[in-house]
Write a structure and sequence with these properties.
Layout lengths: L17 E6 L4 E6 L4 E7 L7 E3 L5 E6 L4 E6 L4 E7 L4 E6 L5 E6 L4 E6 L5 E6 L4 E6 L5 E6 L4 E6 L4 E7 L7 E5 L5 E8 L2 E6 L4 E7 L9 E3 L5 E4 L2 E4 L5 E4 L5 E4 L4 E6 L4 E6 L5 E6 L4 E7 L1
Antiparallel strand pairs: 1-2, 1-28, 2-3, 4-5, 5-6, 6-7, 8-9, 9-10, 10-11, 12-13, 13-14, 14-15, 16-17, 17-18, 18-19, 20-21, 21-22, 22-23, 24-25, 25-26, 26-27
Length: 302
């Protein structure tokens, strides 16, 4: 299989304000200009793009393909796949260290998290973390990673420097996506976790669940995130104000990401082959951008 694949459309200049959208139905990543609100380029990837993560400097984008047991590394400046990295069974979530030197890949078909050197693309180690690891997130202060084990129904907290598990937090059901609630000093207060039938609220300091918000369809894999101003949680179709967790609105679609100075949300619509642009204050849809088939994960580079 080819390792280098060319962009089929014109590549926009290396600049701020772009979305990268994984079009799983067309084996491509669409490049969207957030100002013009249109697709300005695309990157062909070998098969079924899933989860994505970018390096902190925005120069490298990593795209997971669970059907190929691989991660494709993309040079953002050239828009080319520079390397396809073989992984263990069913790679799922991916995170990149703050210095960009390591990529951490969850194995949904295994019992750990694979660690790759992003310069050599060599597998460094596998962190034994739990059964069927699914999602992984770098904490706001970039000192730790929080991963989900769907097989063991727990969160796993990993030290980003030592790359060792520090502690675990059990949850009531199979965990889906995670949102990390921190203060202005990036100190973590709560973690919100998708579980069947609702959202589990975790006290990070106490390392335990303290409450659960009932929500039909939770843990279905829909969008999940906290707005940049830390005033709202977008969770699988529902919007809650923070810190009081009052339901204040709703949205539809798949993955969600925030950009444009924190004023806009971008939501993929896999059933409509588009991405919605939503004002996070008024919750009005400002535009709907056509992309490829079955868009899923979104990464914002600003």
């Amino acid at each position: 299989m080819r390792c280098l694949l060319l962009i089929l459309l014109a590549i926009p200049a290396f600049a701020q304000g772009r979305l990268y959208v994984a079009d799983s139905g067309e084996d491509r990543v669409s490049i969207v200009d957030t100002q013009a609100r249109k697709v300005t380029g695309e990157i062909r990837v070998p098969a079924n793009p899933g989860a994505m993560a970018a390096s902190e400097d925005g120069l490298r984008l990593y795209v997971v393909s669970s059907t190929r047991n691989a991660v494709d590394a993309i040079d953002v400046k050239t828009g080319r796949v520079v390397r396809s990295i073989s992984t263990g069974p069913l790679p799922a979530g991916i995170a990149v260290s703050s210095d960009g030197r390591r990529a951490f890949v969850c194995l949904a078909g295994g019992d750990g998290i694979e660690v790759f050197d992003t310069a050599s693309f060599a597998r460094i180690k596998t962190i034994p973390a739990g059964k069927s690891m699914r999602n992984i997130y770098l904490t706001p202060d970039q000192t730790r990673m929080i991963a989900t084990s769907t097989g063991d129904k727990k969160l796993v907290v990993i030290n980003a420097r030592t790359e060792q598990v520090e502690f675990e937090i059990p949850v009531s059901g199979v965990p889906g996506q995670v949102a990390i609630d921190s203060d202005r000093n990036l100190v973590i207060d709560r973690i919100f976790v998708q579980v069947p039938g609702g959202i589990e609220v975790i006290d990070y300091r106490a390392r335990k669940a303290t409450s659960k918000i009932a929500l039909a369809g939770a843990a279905s894999g829909g969008g999940f995130g906290i707005t940049p101003d830390r005033k709202a949680l977008w969770a699988d179709g529902a919007i809650f104000s923070l810190p009081d967790l009052k339901r204040v609105g709703a949205y539809t679609g798949g993955d969600v990401a925030f950009a444009s100075g924190g004023r806009r949300a971008f939501v993929s619509n896999p059933d409509a082959d588009s991405v919605s642009v939503i004002d996070i204050t008024t919750l009005k849809e400002l535009a709907r951008i056509p992309v490829g088939k079955k868009p899923g994960a979104i990464v914002v580079l600003q």
